[in-house]
């Protein structure tokens, strides 16, 4: 049986039964390199196309890609190595067939070594596999900018650890020349400078060690405007005092990178949503909790994924098997509890994503800041994953590619809160693997490919009453007639935000009773507000994010005294063609500012209706009279034709 062995830790090479086999066609080299840098992992066709052509993809990239795969298989007889998968291609390789796999295996063994001598031997063996820069000579700018840097970083980190072990055996003199070359190649790695200073000092070259400090001090000042780190300064002071220099603390093997744990705390009185939580956590084994445990955020969850293999080296959770990415999108009107549900689900899912949990507010509806630009969002995500700021690429596409690369072998949970649009979210999605993404948005993200799409409704009455009672405090509502509690939550539209605001007001006014609270809720001059939380403010932000034709439609609908809005009546108010009117109504529906209780019929949630009525007050008098006159004429025409008028009982489409 023919055996092919590959090398990527240097120039890309292939050896078949001991004989080098040249791969000279540029695009085939890029294709092969991209697959080899992700061994035994499904590489999506889109990612392969990105590495092959960048922004200059052909008209039908998947068809051309299939042709390249066939040619590559034929060139190296790789029918059993390059496997076609539903979403891309996979290079199926044993550890002895690829130097990258062998390197990672040796690092894993070194990390498990029982003594420094064994660890040192294994690291020397691992580093001997490197013959130069990763995939040197492979002509793909995207591959060189995104796929190569993480491996180059791992290489230098391994060198630093091996040098420390060599120094521990007293080999300082033999390390000086190597460290001088490494500091020239990596001038901003302060750990290497500290190792060089230590090696010089311990071989009796104190003056050179002090001059080395002055060199790095000037370099960091001139290039970055910073001073050397605390460890370098400590070494410098010890050398000036001619004190013994121990191995610096930061030369010891650093702990694995700490996975990000960015989830905010859940709301203290989470109630209901059991079906929604079941849908969001399906297939993970996460336990959904109801009752008091749900209210306090306590859950007993088992079955967390095991971390094995390369995860011991990188601090990431290794993804094995056929794990697929899950994307869940939660949409709903302002105040319906999207973020609370997402955070609750995220805490249930967290144990199954040991690679970390990322949380990012995309600020679609921020009072003070514009929506987060996707490039800025990726910058934050990359830094949260441990990437130094100076390594974050400039271009959006490069940042997105590097982000996908960093997540490719991790089980990471990503929560994207308050998304503005599909375009904002799309670059922030991982490329695959065992990642899970939760998205919240006031808009339906219908243009996004998701695993689960969930539109939240207001709470059922029983859950709404429970939420109000828990938030206000049992002592504040004890013995209260249930019909009064039901009336309060109905005034709140059974929206969690409105219920929490109202309960907080009752809790902060010990002299109030439910009847007094109900009187205030019935007064339109008393907005639902508690501290910084306000239902009106939340609706204001949704209104502000509409474009002007949508805002005008919203204001004019606020003039209609009827409960429902059919297309014909709305067209009369807006003075637009029914087709255009229906499009505007659908846009308001997507923004969750109106509801569609029946096909062709639209209505406001009653809290939104109050807000729309306030917005309608800004319509000038002449425009208001004209709009109402058109609406009356529409009703008169329907009546004269013998059609039931679309009054308070509802509107016909016509």
Helix share of residues? Answer: 40-55%
> Which band does the percent of strand residues land in?
5-15%
**Chain-averaged pLDDT:** 80
Gross morphology: elongated
Low-confidence stretches: 248-255, 287-323, 528-532, 644-654
**Number of distinct beta strands:** 16
Our measurement of the CA-to-CA distance between the termini, rounded to an integer number of angstroms, reads 75 Å
The secondary-structure class comes to: alpha/beta
Q: What topology, given as strand order, has the largest sheet?
A: 8-9-10-7-11
The count of helical stretches stands at 28
**Main β-sheet: number of strands, strand sense, barrel status?**
5 strands, parallel
Radius of gyration: 32 Å
Descriptive report:
The structure is a single chain. With 654 residues, the protein is α/β, with parallel strands linked by helices. Helices cover 49% and strands 10% of the residues. It is built from 28 helices and 16 strands. Strands 8-9-10-7-11 form a five-stranded parallel β-sheet, with helices on both faces. Helix 5 (116-127) packs antiparallel against helix 6, helix 6 runs parallel beside helix 8 (190-202) and helix 8 packs parallel to helix 10 (230-240). The protein is elongated and about 100 Å long.
């Amino acid at each position: 049986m023919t055996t092919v062995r590959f090398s990527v830790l240097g120039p890309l090479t292939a050896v078949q039964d001991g004989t080098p086999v040249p791969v000279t066609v540029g695009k085939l080299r890029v294709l092969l390199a991209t697959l080899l840098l992700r061994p035994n992992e499904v590489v999506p066709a889109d990612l392969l196309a990105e590495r092959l052509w960048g922004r200059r993809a052909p008209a039908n990239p998947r068809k051309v890609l299939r042709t390249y795969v066939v040619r590559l298989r034929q060139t190296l007889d790789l029918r059993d190595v390059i496997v076609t998968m539903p979403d891309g291609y996979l290079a199926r390789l044993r550890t002895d067939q690829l130097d990258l796999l062998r390197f990672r295996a040796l690092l894993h063994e070194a990390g498990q070594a029982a003594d420094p001598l064994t660890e040192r031997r294994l690291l020397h063996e691992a580093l001997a596999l490197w013959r130069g820069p990763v995939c040197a000579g492979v002509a793909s700018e995207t591959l060189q900018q995104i796929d190569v840097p993480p491996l180059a970083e791992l290489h230098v980190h391994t060198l630093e650890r091996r040098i420390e072990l060599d120094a521990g055996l007293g080999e300082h003199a033999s390390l000086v020349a190597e460290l001088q070359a490494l500091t020239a190649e990596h001038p901003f790695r302060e750990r290497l400078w500290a190792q060089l200073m230590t090696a010089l000092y311990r071989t009796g070259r104190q003056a050179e060690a002090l001059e080395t400090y002055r060199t790095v001090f000037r370099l960091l000042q001139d290039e970055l405007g910073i001073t050397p780190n605390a460890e370098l300064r400590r070494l410098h002071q010890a050398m000036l005092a001619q004190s013994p220099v121990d191995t610096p603390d930061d030369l010891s093997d650093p702990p694995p990178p700490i996975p990000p744990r960015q989830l905010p705390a859940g709301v203290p009185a989470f109630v209901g949503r059991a079906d929604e939580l079941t849908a969001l956590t399906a297939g993970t084994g996460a336990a959904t909790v109801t009752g008091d445990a749900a209210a306090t955020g306590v859950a007993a969850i088992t079955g967390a994924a095991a971390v094995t293999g390369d995860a011991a080296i990188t601090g990431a959770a290794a993804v094995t098997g056929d794990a697929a990415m899950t994307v869940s999108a939660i949409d709903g009107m302002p105040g319906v509890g999207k973020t609370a549900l997402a955070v609750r689900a995220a805490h249930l899912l967290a144990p199954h994503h040991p690679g970390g949990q990322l949380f990012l507010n995309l600020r679609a509806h921020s009072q003070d800041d514009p929506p987060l630009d996707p490039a800025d969002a990726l910058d934050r995500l990359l830094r949260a994953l441990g990437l130094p700021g100076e390594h974050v690429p400039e271009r959006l596409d490069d940042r997105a590619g590097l982000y996908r690369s960093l997540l490719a072998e991790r089980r990471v949970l990503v929560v994207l809160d308050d998304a503005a649009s599909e375009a904002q979210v799309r670059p922030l999605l991982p490329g695959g693997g065992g990642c899970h993404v939760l998205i919240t948005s006031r808009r339906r993200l219908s243009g996004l490919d998701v695993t689960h799409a969930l539109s939240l409704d207001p709470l059922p009455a029983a859950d709404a009453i429970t939420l109000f009672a828990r938030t206000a405090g049992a002592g504040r509502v004890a013995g209260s007639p249930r019909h009064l509690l039901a009336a309060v939550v109905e005034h709140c539209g059974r929206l969690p935000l409105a219920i929490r605001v109202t309960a907080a007001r009752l809790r902060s006014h010990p002299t109030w009773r439910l009847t007094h609270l109900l009187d205030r809720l019935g007064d339109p001059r008393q907005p639902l507000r508690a501290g910084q939380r306000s239902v009106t403010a939340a609706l204001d932000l949704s209104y502000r994010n509409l474009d002007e034709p949508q805002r005008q439609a919203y204001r004019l609908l606020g003039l209609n005294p009827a409960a429902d809005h059919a297309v014909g009546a709305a067209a009369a108010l807006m003075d637009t063609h029914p087709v255009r009117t229906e499009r505007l109504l659908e846009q308001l529906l997507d923004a969750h500012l109106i509801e569609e209780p029946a096909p062709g019929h639209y209505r406001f949630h009653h809290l939104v209706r109050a807000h729309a009525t306030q917005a309608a007050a800004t319509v000038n008098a002449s425009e208001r009279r004209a709009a109402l006159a058109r609406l009356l004429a529409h009703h008169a025409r329907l009546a004269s034709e013998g059609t039931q008028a679309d009054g308070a009982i509802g509107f016909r489409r016509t």
